[in-house]
Every structure is written in structure tokens, then in C-alpha cells.
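re the bet — no i am not wrong, look at it urself. input seq straight from the record:
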Amino acid sequence: MPDVESNQKPAEQSANEVTWGFKILGRVIGTLAAAAMIILGLMTMIGFSGSCLLSGVLMMIFGGLVIMIEAPIFCQYFQWAEKVTQFVDNRPYFLRAGLYLILSIVPFAICRSVSSFFGCGALFVAGTFYGVIAVGKKGDAVKAATAAHGGGGYQPQVNNDESTLR
């Protein structure tokens, strides 16, 4: 029986490469990270400096944006939220990973507190997970070795000289 996936074009393979389990897991991790970022952003705002107040506000805004992207059911009454969600869903996963990584670094760079560390760290983990999804699954070592040696088959070089065996 021929392998259906091997007959697909490379562009179609990369789009279908992510399983539904990883898609759902990414959404769950992103939603939990956004909720943590909102809650811990509120805790960061309690700090005694203006920079921590700004960082907390940014954490709450970024957490709301991520909630809108990952779990649009929470924003179903905003008509513009559906457009934003569809725009992000139609993009490759590495762009979502980059967005989440940038959104997690900015508030922590402004205020380095424990609550901002954990809130931004949760979103950083979600961005890293989407980065792993974007990289894709591991390739076959035999195919990689064959391609590296010009497709002529992998032949390890073995020295059978009598002088080295003594």
C-alpha cells in the first residue's frame, strides 16, 4: 500500500505535519500562560515603582491579546476579535512563537520582579512550544546521510589496512 504522505508536495506536508493533539496542547498552554500573565500582571502592578506599574499593565494587555488569539470563545462578543484570531491562525507557527517570545520579554525587561518573572515565563514557555511545533518532527537519519553523500547510499569508511590491525 503506497504511503499517502510521501506523495504530497513539501508545502502540503509542512501544513499537515502538526497533529491535532499538538494543536490543542498549544492552545491549552497558550491559554493558561495568558491567564497566568493577566493574574500575575495584576500582582506586578501592586509594586512600589512606576516601572512595575507599567510592566503590570503591559502584562495584562498582552495576556488579553494572547487569550483572544488562543481562546476566541472568551472574546466572542467583540466582532473584531474574530478577524484577529483568523489572521493569526492563517500564519505559520514560527510567527506566533516569535510574537509570544517578544511579548514575554518586554514586560520583564521593564520590571524584574518575581511575579513578572513567572507571568512572562509562562508566556515564554508557550512561545517556545510553538517554536518546537514550527521546527517540525525529527528527520530520518538514514535519509539525511544519503542526501549528504550525494544520494549514492551511505557507505561508512572503514580502514582495513593490515598495519592498523596489529
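see?? The longest helix spans residues 20-45. told u. also Residues 17-152 form one domain. so pay up
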